[in-house]
Structures are given as C-alpha cells and as structure tokens.
C-alpha cells in the first residue's frame, strides 16, 4: 500500500482502494514507512514480547502490593493463612490460586466467602413447596411407572434440600 503511493499513485486513490482515511494512511506510513517485510515481522514480535513483559511486570507489582498488605501479620496457623488468602482475594480482587500461592496455603482448603442468604426467596420457595408437594419427587399415591424422573427434577430436589424442606437422601 505504501509502495503504491511511493510509485506515484495519488494518496486519495490508495486510501479509497484500501478503505482507509488519509489520516490513517499517513499514520500507517509514519510507523511502517521505511521498513521491508522482515523488519515488519521483527517489529511485531518485539511488540508482542513487550506486551508480555508488561503483563508480567504488572502481575509482579500486584503480588508485591498484596504481600506488603500482609506484612507484619503472623501467618503461623493454617486458619490464619486461609483468612489472609480470603482477605487478599476480597481486597485485591485476585484469583483463589494466586492468593493461596502468595500466602502459602493449599487452594483446596480456601473457598470464597458464601453469598448472603436471601430469606425472602427461601420463604417463597417454602410456600410453593407446601402448595405443590409433589414437585421434584415421585408420587407414591398411584401405581409406580417404569419411566424415571423428569429431566429437571434433580434441580427442584436440590432447591428443596437447600431450603431444609426435605432431607437429602
């Protein structure tokens, strides 16, 4: 494209042919004007490497900030370490794996804090379940059928178990 313009084709014609505005063309020409194809590939690989190094630097700086926040706290027992990992996840919005690696605790032992309970939804589910007693369970007041439960009955049963309406078996 730049070679077409350097060969004598008007800039407006080159821009129309390639679907660019003149400002974009001149910006492109300023960046890649005197390069050949191998220089262009080398520039692209250097830009990719630079972006990767910037991400690594940002990750390391974030790890440093998290560790500075934990500085001075004695992380001697597993419970204290798990609490420190949860605090790091909450305060710095980092992943569980990363927080556990920084604190030195097994990720299988640390879980995010549970969301708060919603009593309004729980009461509404109890009311629906008391009106429709057979939702999600097999009915026993008729002859048993050979057909298994519906495709979503396990979800309803799980919801009812979570609301302490039925006991999990």
UniProtKB/TrEMBL annotation:
InterPro entries: Homeodomain-like_sf, Transposase_8, Transposase_8_domain. GO terms for biological process: DNA transposition. The keyword Metal-binding does not apply. Keywords: Coiled coil. Pfam families: HTH_Tnp_1. One of its GO terms (molecular function) is DNA binding. PANTHER family: LOW CALCIUM RESPONSE LOCUS PROTEIN S, TRANSPOSASE. This is Transposase. It comes from marine sediment metagenome.
């Amino acid at each position: 494209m730049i070679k077409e313009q350097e060969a004598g084709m008007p800039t407006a014609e080159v821009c129309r042919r390639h679907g660019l505005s003149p400002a974009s063309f001149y910006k492109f020409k300023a960046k890649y004007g005197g390069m050949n194809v191998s220089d262009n590939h080398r520039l692209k690989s250097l830009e990719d490497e630079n972006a990767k190094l910037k991400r690594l630097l940002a990750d390391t700086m974030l790890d440093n900030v998290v560790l500075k926040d934990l500085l001075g706290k004695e992380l001697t027992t597993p419970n204290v370490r798990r609490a420190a990992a949860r605090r790091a996840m909450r305060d710095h919005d980092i992943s569980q794996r990363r927080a556990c690696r920084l604190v030195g605790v097994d990720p299988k032992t640390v879980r995010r804090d549970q969301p708060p309970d919603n009593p309004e939804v729980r009461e509404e589910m109890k009311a629906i379940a008391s009106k429709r007693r057979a939702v999600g369970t097999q009915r026993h007041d008729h002859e048993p059928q050979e057909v298994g439960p519906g495709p979503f009955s396990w979800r309803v049963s799980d919801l009812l178990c979570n609301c302490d309406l039925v006991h999990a078996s």
